[in-house]
Specification:
Layout (H helix, E strand, L loop, with lengths): L2 E4 L5 H9 L3 E4 L8 H8 L4 E4 L6 H6 L5 E4 L9 H6 L4 E2 L6 H16 L2 H9 L20 E5 L3 H14 L2 E5 L5 H7 L2 E2 L2 H7 L2 E4 L13 H5 L6 E4 L8 H9 L5 E4 L19 E3 L8 H19 L15
Parallel strand pairs: 1-2, 1-3, 3-4, 4-5, 6-7, 6-9, 7-8, 9-10, 10-11, 11-12
The structure holds (2R)-2,3-dihydroxypropanoic acid.
(2R)-2,3-dihydroxypropanoic acid (DGY) binds next to loops.
Length: about 325
C-alpha cells in the first residue's frame, strides 16, 4: 500500500478520499511544528507528502528524493523551493481557486472593521471603558464611493473588488505586472502604475504572491506616497509589507489605518504595538478558515496526491515544467 505523510490533521473529506483510494494516511497529530529532522524522518517511509505549512527546502528535498509527489494544503508556495523540486523530478501541487472567496471575505471584513475601529472599540467594552456617548469620539470613515486599489488582481483580488464595488460602489484601480483584461471588462477596473495605486487608493488591498519582487514592497517609501486618510489591507503574506515601517506610518499619520490577516513574523507577539492601535485590525491568518473552503482545499490536495502516486499529471501543478 502507498503511504502519504500529512504534516497536520486535515479535514475529513480529503483524508477519506485518500483512504478510499487505498492510500495509508499517516498524520502528524501533535499541535506543534515539526522540525526539519522530524519531517525528513517521517517522510523516509512515505511515498508522498501532504504538506501544511512546513518549509520544503533544498535540504529536505535532497533527503526525500524518493517522494513521488508533494501536495500543499495551500494556494501559496513561497515556503517551497520549487526549482529544487523540479530538478529532482518531484511534482508539487497546490489548491488554487477554492479559497478565493473566503480570503476576499476576510479582506472585506478587515476593511470594514478597520474603517470603523471595530476591534479596538470591542476591547474598550472588555476593559470597562464604555462611557457616555460623545458625538465627536470614536469616529470612523465611510467607504461608499471611495477608491479601492488592488495590488495583484488575480482570483482573490477580483472577489474583493466585486464585493467592494457591489456593497459600496467603490471605484476599482489595480496594479499588476500585466493587465487583467477580463477583470477590467467585468468590474470596470482600471490598470494604474504602482505610484498611481499608492497615490489614489482610499483602501489599498494586497492580493499578490510573496516573491523576491513583492517582498517588502510596502515600506516607508510606499506608505509616504499614500493618502493620510487611506487604509492598508494585507491578506496575502506578511513579508510583502515591512511591519516596522507600517507601524511608523500609522503613528506618524502617513496612512489612516491597517487591517492584517498576515504578519511578519507569524505568529505576531501578543504585546505588539499594532494590536493596541485604534485604527488597526489584526487576525491570525484565518483567510481560508471556513468549513467549506478547508474541506475543498483538503480534496484538491488529496487529488494531487492520488494523481502523483498513480504516476499521472497532477490536476493542480505548481511546477508543470517537471513534466517536460
Ligand atoms: C494559502 O493557501 O496560501 C493560505 O495562506 C493558507 O490559508
Amino acid at each position: 500500500m502507498k503511504r502519504v505523510f500529512v504534516t497536520r490533521v486535515i479535514p475529513e473529506p480529503g483524508r477519506k478520499l485518500l483512504e478510499d483510494a487505498g492510500i495509508t494516511v499517516v498524520e502528524w497529530k501533535e499541535k506543534r511544528k515539526l522540525s526539519k529532522e522530524e519531517l525528513i524522518s517521517c517522510c523516509s517511509q512515505a511515498d508522498a507528502l501532504l504538506c501544511v505549512s512546513s518549509p520544503v527546502d533544498q535540504e529536505f528535498l535532497q533527503a526525500s528524493k524518493h517522494l513521488k509527489v508533494i501536495a500543499l494544503h495551500s494556494v501559496g508556495y513561497d515556503h517551497v523551493d520549487v526549482a529544487a523540486a523540479t530538478d529532482l523530478g518531484i511534482p508539487i501541487g497546490n489548491t488554487p481557486g477554492v479559497l478565493s472567496a473566503a480570503t476576499a471575505d476576510t479582506a472585506f471584513l478587515l476593511m470594514l472593521a478597520t474603517s470603523r475601529k471595530a476591534f479596538y472599540m470591542h476591547k474598550t467594552i472588555l476593559k470597562g471603558e464604555w462611557g457616555f456617548f460623545e458625538p465627536t469620539a470614536n469616529l470612523g470613515i465611510e467607504l461608499r464611493g471611495k477608491t479601492l486599489g488592488i495590488f495583484g488582481l488575480g482570483k482573490i483580488g477580483l472577489e474583493m473588488a466585486k464585493a467592494c464595488a457591489g456593497a459600496f460602489g467603490m471605484k476599482v484601480i489595480y496594479h499588476n505586472r500585466s493587465r487583467n483584461e477580463p477583470a477590467e471588462k467585468l468590474i470596470n477596473a482600471q490598470w494604474v502604475s504602482f505610484d498611481e495605486l499608492l497615490a489614489e487608493s482610499d483602501v489599498l488591498s494586497v492580493h499578490t504572491a510573496l516573491t523576491t519582487e513583492t517582498a517588502g514592497r510596502f515600506n516607508t517609501a510606499a506608505f509616504a506616497r499614500m493618502k493620510p486618510s487611506s487604509i492598508f489591507i494585507n491578506t496575502a503574506r506578511g513579508g510583502i509589507h515591512h511591519e516596522g515601517d507600517l507601524q511608523r506610518a500609522l503613528e506618524e499619520g502617513q496612512i489612516w489605518g491597517a487591517g492584517l490577516d498576515v504578519t511578519n513574523p507569524e505568529p505576531m507577539m501578543s504585546d505588539h504595538p499594532l494590536l493596541n492601535m485604534p485604527n488597526v485590525a489584526v487576525l491570525p491568518h484565518i483567510g481560508s478558515a471556513t468549513v467549506e473552503t478547508r474541506n475543498a482545499m483538503s480534496i484538491l490536495a488529496a487529488q494531487n496526491i492520488i494523481a502523483g502516486l498513480n504516476g499521472e499529471r497532477l490536476p493542480y501543478p505548481v511546477n508543470p515544467e517537471v513534466y517536460r
